[in-house]
Amino acid sequence: MLTAAQLTSLQDILPADRIHLDAETCARYGQDWTRYTTPQAAAIVFPVSIDEVQAVVRWANAQGVGIVPSGGRTGLSGGAVAVQGEVVVSLERMSRMDGFDPLARTVRCQAGVVTAALQQFAADHGLYYPVDFASSGSSQIGGNIATNAVGIRVVRYGMTRDWVAGLTVVTGSGDVLECNLGLAKNNTGYDFRHLFVGSEGTLGLVVAATMRLTDPPPSSTVLLLALPGLADIMAVFHAFRSALTLQAFEFFSDLALTHVLAAEQASAPLAERQPFYVLLELETPIQSQEEAVLQVFSACLEQGWVCDGLIAQSQQQARALWRLREGISAAITPYTPYKNDISVVLSQLPGFVARLQGVLAREYPDFEVLWYGHIGDGNLHINVLKPASWALADFRHACEQVNEQVFALVAEFAGSMSAEHGVGLLKRDYLGVTRSVEEIALMRGVKAVFDPNGIMNPGKLLQQAGPDA
Which residues of 203-235 are buried (b: 16+ CB within 10 A; e: fewer)? Predict the structure, then answer.
């Protein structure tokens, strides 16, 4: 809790109606999509300008109070939870887009701009913002940048990092930095922009960004394919990528499909169920490419890699097929899933998956284990569903015991223990799986430079004590 003196000094910076202390608001803004912690925010503040953000950060340094940056709070690693009495800085009221440059194809966004709003802005100007995921209707650009958000089109367009032309940040010491100025070419030494992308709010707050836009994609074809086993997925991937340009290549298990169909009250898309499914989107602007889709599909059937499939015949049907993939996370949320988000290089994926299947089958005999992911970039999502009879703490403990074996396998295959969800609080203690001792020491050194008093998102990413709030 804030002391009376701290609250009074905070009210000198922000009006009282943008400082919230009530339990309901603190609980709502004090947690993200994870549900493994109890929010303990001291206050939620809503700045509307960079000057106000800077003033709040300087106040926090003077008062020794930790800060948790808050965007859409759609994260899945506990990166936006307040559990130590921190002040949560919500940037949702900083949601203006301006400075559109049609020649450079860039637009300036405040941190609170919702991802879908940027996508719509681009479409309204005959352009395209390609970073997309199921939470695009609620996630915010500042949070996307802080977590280097990715999603369903990485195989074609890359990650958020690739679309940030410039960045305005307020560092943990309260300085305002303009990183790269939106320039296409700027070869003048260290590019601090890339330090803040993916830093999870531990170095400072992203308050604005110049985002790149591009040409809209050509017409495309969406397919749903049913596969007999995980081992067939990479053969299908190689077959289609060799012949066509992939926009997306996603997979999910039949268990995932079962939960989505139940949540959506929908019917199964294919006559017979199979263990695994692949959802592809392929660029097909000309007739010959549409014919190539059928040829590759037929070849996959002949090889036995695919048992059945469906090609969308309309935009409406394509959207319905995408719902089968994008609806998974929401469908399993009531089961409080324990999530592992891991990746290896594509060439290692078949061997890694074969080994991982054995570990999960052996160690989770009493739990439902649900697979899905962006398999085209080597990323697997493993979701373990909590039985209703299990206490949350006991379930988390059981899952963390298995982490040791899962992450040992990840390390053996030189993979990442967090491919896209970030490290946050829940995966912090496993950072050494992917980062060396030397790298972690340098990361601590970087944090000390930008956040000398350790007020920024304390306890996240690195095992580093935060200030007493």
Answer: bbbbbbbbbbbeeebeebbbbbbbbeebbbbbb
Alpha-helical regions (H) of 103-232? 115-124, 141-147, 154-157, 193-196
- Using alpha carbons, select from 402, 409, 403 the residue that is nearest to residue 344: 409
- Identify the burial level of 16 via C-beta atoms within 10 angstroms of its C-beta, where 0-12 means exposed, 13-18 middle and 19 or more buried: exposed
Total H helices, total E strands in the chain:
15, 16
Instruction: Decide: 47 and 91 in contact? Cβ < 8 Å.
Output: yes
Q: Which amino acid is at 112?
A: G
Lowest mean pLDDT among 102-111, 158-167, 276-285, 362-371: 362-371
Angle at 232 between CA 222 and CA 288, to 5 degrees: 35
Contacts of 371 (CB under 8 A, 6+ apart): 230, 251, 252, 253, 255, 256, 276, 380, 381, 382, 383
| pLDDT at res. 465 | 47
pLDDT tens column, 115-155: 999 999 999 999 999 999 888 999 999 999 999 998 889 99
Q: Whole-angstrom Cα distance, residue 458 to residue 449?
A: 15
pLDDT digits (tens, 9 = 90+) for 167-217: 999 999 999 999 999 999 999 999 999 999 999 999 999 999 999 999 999
Confidence of residue 469 (pLDDT cuts 50, 70, 90): very low
Q: Are strands 379-385 and 338-343 parallel, antiparallel or unpaired?
A: antiparallel
Q: Give how far Cα 151 sits from Cα of 181, 326, 349, Å.
A: 26, 10, 19
**Identity of the amino acid at 329:** S
* 280 class by beta-carbon count within 10 Å (0-12 exposed, 13-18 middle, 19+ buried): buried
Q: How far is CA 28 from the centre of its chain?
A: 20
